[in-house]
Design brief:
Keywords: Antibiotic resistance, Cell inner membrane, Cell membrane, Membrane, Transmembrane, Transmembrane helix, Transport
Shape: globular
Structural class: mainly alpha
Oligomer: single chain
Subcellular location: Cell inner membrane; Cell membrane
Distance between the termini: 35 Å
Number of strands: 0
Helix content: over 70%
Family: Belongs to the ABC-2 integral membrane protein family.
Largest sheet: none
Protein name: Transport permease protein
Membrane topology: Multi-pass membrane protein
Amino acid sequence: MDMARLAAEHGLERVGGRPSLPQYVKQLLNRSDFTYTLAKYRMQSENERNRLGMLWVLLRPSFSALIYGTVFGVIMKGATARPDDFAPFVIIGVFILEFFNSSMNGGAKSIISNASLVQSLPFPRIVLPIAKVFQNLLDFIPTLIFMALIVILFGARPDWDWFLFIPLVFLFWVFNQGVAFIFARATVHFRDLSQVTPFISRMIFYTSGVFFDLKVMVDKINPSLQPFADWQPINNVLSIARGILMKDGVVPYDYFWHLAIWAFGIFIIGFVFFWQAEERFGRDE
């Protein structure tokens, strides 16, 4: 007798087997409370390890902006590539890219750093990268408010365009989540990738227009590459944010649908990519 068919006839399923995609999504939704609690608990526990606690959520990007702004401000002083209003330009770039880098690096380690949890408890493993990126989102919200207060000191004034941050943060969150899915699975199969990920994030940091206007730079190097700047997702986010927040900024509205295509495309690809390896997580540890 075929034991697999007999088990199926009696509603038995293989332990640790991969559910269908609709069942997987249903299991994930049923674990939404666990996901939220995990993200909130880890945010509190990580910040409570330091004497200044949650204040480090604001201090980390502030110190980065101060250091990078000072160094590149001196290097680029007098250079035509240096943007106007350099201080708020760098502050917005550094603060926003912190969310992307922490999501990519945290997502890459979300499975391998929770090996004991993955091997001992049954739950959709995709909960772990989702909780990590949601934790980063909770950290990013006060950072965003702090960033807005700083740019006000440099002459920016709130207007109706500031409400565009709601769809911008949502799309950026979706995009970061998709990237985290991809790196979470890839790091399980290729452990050395966790050592390379910081260099990838650094490369993105230096080439995505944090310290310079990517469109202006590309126009000087090779104008035929302008579509690259127009479709680079991080540049899309930074350009929209600067258009909203900076004094005399102009919002590139067409970048919203560029970013939307990137965000939902990467999210769907990342989700399916992660789901396909669901039954292998914990066995490859």
